[in-house]
Design goal:
6-stranded mixed β-sheet; about 190 residues; 13 strands; tt1808, chain A; single chain; alpha/beta
């Protein structure tokens, strides 16, 4: 079995992974994702990763709920972007109210409106390249890359040409800007341990 960890080092692929393969994986606490037919497996995240994830989730959820904008979810929840890119499980995602899944939904078919990935040492290539490319390709309107080590948030917005453009890099006392969640008012340094 050729498997790509969150630090993909496999130089050849012996198998194109499918969603049917995914459904047969064990419930072992690992996160399994299939991106363009390649399998990515990651272990449980670190304390710093989860701390940042919790802070962003709480702030986003409160803002979205207060303003009746939709729903904010945290991993694990399956996103199906295409036949060969499913599931991906972003750390945090936002879906507008008019697209919100109904109760009992097992996965979301299509691109969320906003995705947040918290970058860890083992996920740098996956988050910055593999996921960046598929989120861009399948139309995720806004993509946040959060770097706990650098204490920085990068926000990318999908341009009219279908490519990501950097909206900004936010550190320290800077307020994170978002076009999808305009006015959210997150102060960068408040999100980190």
């Amino acid at each position: 079995m050729t498997v790509m960890t969150m630090t993909p080092t496999v130089t050849h692929r012996q198998k194109i992974w499918t969603y049917e393969d995914y459904l047969a994986f064990p419930d072992d606490g690992k996160r399994y994702e299939i991106i363009k037919g390649a399998l990515f497996v990651s272990n449980a995240p670190s304390y710093d990763h989860q701390y940042v994830c919790g802070e962003i989730f709480a702030e986003m959820r409160n803002f979205v709920k207060k303003n009746h904008l939709g729903v904010v979810l945290a991993a694990p929840f399956e996103i199906h972007l295409s036949k060969d890119t499913r599931p991906v499980q972003p750390d945090i995602l936002f879906i507008r109210a008019d697209r919100q899944p109904v109760s009992g939904t097992k996965f979301f078919n299509g691109a969320p409106d906003l995705v947040v990935e918290i970058v860890s040492p083992s996920s740098i290539k996956t988050d910055r390249h593999d996921k960046f490319d598929v989120y861009e390709q399948y139309g995720v309107t806004e993509y946040w890359l959060v770097e706990p080590k650098a204490r920085m948030i990068e926000v990318y917005i999908l341009s009219g040409g279908g490519e990501y453009a950097l909206l900004g890099q936010f550190v320290g006392d800077e307020v994170v800007e978002s076009q999808v969640l305009a006015g959210i008012g997150l102060v960068a340094q408040s999100l980190f341990t």
